[in-house]
Amino acid sequence: MISELSASFGLMLGLEPFLYILIGTVSGIVIGAIPGLNGAMLVALTLPLTYGWDPLHAIAILVGQYVGSISGGLVSATLLNIPGSPSSMMTTLDAAPMARKGRPLRALQLGIIASFVGGVVSWVALVFLSPPLAKIALKFGPHEYFALVLAALMLISSLSEGSMLKALISACIGMIVALPGLDTITAQPRMTFGFSQMMAGFNLLAVLLGIFAVTQLLSDAGRDLRKAERVRLDVKESFISLADVARQGVNLLRSSLIGTWIGILPGVGGSVGSIVSYVTAKNMSRKPEEFGQGCDEGVVASEAANNATVGGALIPMITMGIPGSIIDVILIAALTLHNIRPGPLLFQNNAEIVYGFMSTMMIANILMLVVMLFGIRLLAKLIDVPSKYLVPVLLVLCVVGAFAVNNRVFDVWVMFAFGVLGLFFRWLKLPVAPFVIGFILTPIAETNFRTALILSRNDLLDFLTRPVTAVLLAVSVVVLFLPLFRKRRPA
Amino acid sequence: MNTRSREGLLALACLLIAALVYWSADQIPVSLMAKISAGLVPKMIAVSLALVTCLHLIMTFKSVPEAEDEDSQGAMKMDVTESESEGFSVWRVLFSSMLLGLFILCLEQGWLGFWLSACLFTALGIVLLSEISVRSLVLATMISLLSVSLTVLLFTRVFTVILP
């Protein structure tokens, strides 16, 4: 493993892949820093460009954007008191007050270093946990795989923000969207409603562009973020000392581990990671009353955890083909576009892709640290770009992206329809993560379920007699009915 | 729209979708190749959606007291933070969506070329989101010409993508 990993580092540090990682990381940081724009949107927008590229170059730019966008949210969270990305939500609680007290650079530097440490800890987990997990997953048959996907869907629904029933509704709608097209086993047309363009189902990229980019941009069109006042970075502040960082050692490690663990859970992204880590840091702090007033611990806990979710989320994606976060759904789409199927066989069939993910993540983390520490004043100016200029320009790019894959306007209409659907989701307070994960996992779940039924001669009891399947199904049932036995969560 | 009406609307839409999916799956004949029909999984999902929706509807009507529900009346707001929602305009979202729909229709019907329709869309979009003034009109024209020309150049020359 070490030799493959070092070879991959050698490959990704070549001029061309390195440039892709650099462009990805910088664009991710910039988009993450601009309020209203987020990483999922950027990765979805870049995806169509990578269609004809070498898969490793595609991974280089997309993973760079993933790492950069999670980190970039810190800038507007500190200077504007508005989280640049959802995962920086908890950062605003302490970074913004610290900036208003005249120490914006300290807040930013602490956040950047915490982001880097979080990224490195989760990278270590990615490198050492992925191979054994993939080996276990290789032993799974269709029964186990179906039960695993079902458990993942239940877990996503239970961990989504708000009502679990709404998350389940969202997941069911996502599953329905995945149904049209030719049936994978009998090749019969299904739910095409007379549209010949629907024979291949809804184009994955068009759906992702619609639900992530178009929805975000259309709702940005309705917002007026110009009123926000920015904290200026013209104050003279010295660089934070090593002692400052060392004082946060335990907090850094704990938050990074929490973030990594939350990242491994399917469909749960950086925002949940930073909330859990922030609350834990506050509960374990000697001075909990300082949280929310601009304390170092709050900034470190939130930023270390949200960056740690990146590596954690890549673990189930690489080893089992189950997305750890919504950006991982787009990464799965990227691999699918290049005829690579994520899952346990990835280690055997496309080891260079697996190690490409690992080395890119580490390089992107180092680049993020350097770019953000030394380019922070420039980044602070970029967040002043008003969204009114960006929204129409980016919408044109969405149209081109949706058209480019199959050269048909039908896919652009699909993108538009899912963009509008995403707006309704927001209005109805339906979480979008279960929808996209239901959409991406349904073909896998269906194929495995029906193959399992064929193998067991339509005997459903076969699912219960296999120990792993039975345990996973039991987990699904427990997760489904758990909310009935606990107090209703506050809204 | 109050919480009950909104959740009722969601439930109605979901039940309609479930019924449509079930009916559509029911039309699929059983294949000679496999005993399990291609309609089995769609039917399972449709039934699950209907069940979850009914449960959600019951829970909503049980848990939201009428008095609280009346208090929650208000304009359609997206899921944004408090500071952002202050300046939120549904009309801007609606007009932007309509403009995007019109842009795609132009491309589909071939009424204008990609370059011209994209320029018009970008310029009108910027004007729609700005306060109308001579300065904003000039800026909108400049940004649209520059951004669309760059997009066309980038996609056709660098990425060799065919544009609509």
Q: Termini distance of chain A?
A: 46 Å
Number of helices of chain A: 22
Nearest-angstrom radius of gyration of chain B? Answer: 24 Å
**Helicity level of chain A:** over 70%
What's this, in brief?
With 491 residues, chain A is mostly helical. Chain A has helices spanning 2-12, 15-33, 39-46, 55-79, 91-100, 104-138, 142-159, 164-177, 204-222, 242-247, 249-264, 270-284, 296-320, 326-337, 346-349, 351-374, 376-382, 387-406, 409-427, 432-455, 462-465, 467-481; strands at 181-182, 189-190.
Characteristic key phrases:
heterodimer; A: 491 residues; mainly alpha; two-stranded antiparallel sheet; 1% strand; globular; B: 164 residues; 2 domains; 7 helices; flat
Structure report:
The complex is a heterodimer of chains A (491) and B (164). Chain A has helices at residues 2-12, 15-33, 39-46, 55-79, 91-100, 104-138, 142-159, 164-177, 204-222, 242-247, 249-264, 270-284, 296-320, 326-337, 346-349, 351-374, 376-382, 387-406, 409-427, 432-455, 462-465, 467-481; strands at residues 181-182, 189-190. Chain A starts with a helix and ends in a 10-residue tail after the last helix. Chain A is built from 22 helices and 2 strands. Chain A is mostly helical and 491 residues long. Chain A has one domain. Helices cover 71% and strands 1% of the residues of chain A. In chain A, strand 1 and strand 2 (189-190) form a beta hairpin. Chain A has a two-stranded antiparallel sheet with strand order 1-2. Chain B is an all-alpha fold and 164 residues long. Chain B folds into 2 domains: 3-74; 90-158, no CATH class. Chain B has helices at 3-26, 40-63, 66-71, 82-85, 90-109, 114-129, 134-158. Chain B is flat, with a radius of gyration of 24 Å. Chain B starts with a helix and ends in a 6-residue tail after the last helix. The chains are: A mainly alpha (491), B mainly alpha (164). Chains A and B meet through helix 8, helix 9, helix 18, helix 19 and helix 20 of A and helix 1, helix 2, helix 5, helix 6 and helix 7 of B.
